[in-house]
Predict the 3D structure of the following.
Amino acid sequence: TEVFPSGWEIRNTRMEGNEPSLGSAASDYQDYRDDRVMTYFGLRPGETKRYVLMVTATYAGKFYFPGAYCEAMYDNTISAKEKGMWVEVVTE
C-alpha cells in the first residue's frame, strides 16, 4: 500500500496504455483509490519486485509523503515498511 499526500493526483497508467514502459514488475492486481494504490503480488523468499507509480502534484507546498507498507495476505507476522519523508513541491 502506498499512500499519497492530499493535493497529489495518482495517475492510473493502466488507463493510459503505457504501464509496461515504467519498468514495474507484474502484479496480480492493483487497486487505485483517491489517496492510495494497493498492489497485490506474490513474492518468493529472497525475491524482490519494483513498482513504479506516477503522480501529478496539483499544489505547491510542503507535504508529508507517508512510507510504503507491505504485508503478507494471510500471515500477519510478515511485513515491511518504509519511513515517510517531507517533500516540497515548488513551481518554476
Notes: The two ends are 31 Å apart (CA to CA).
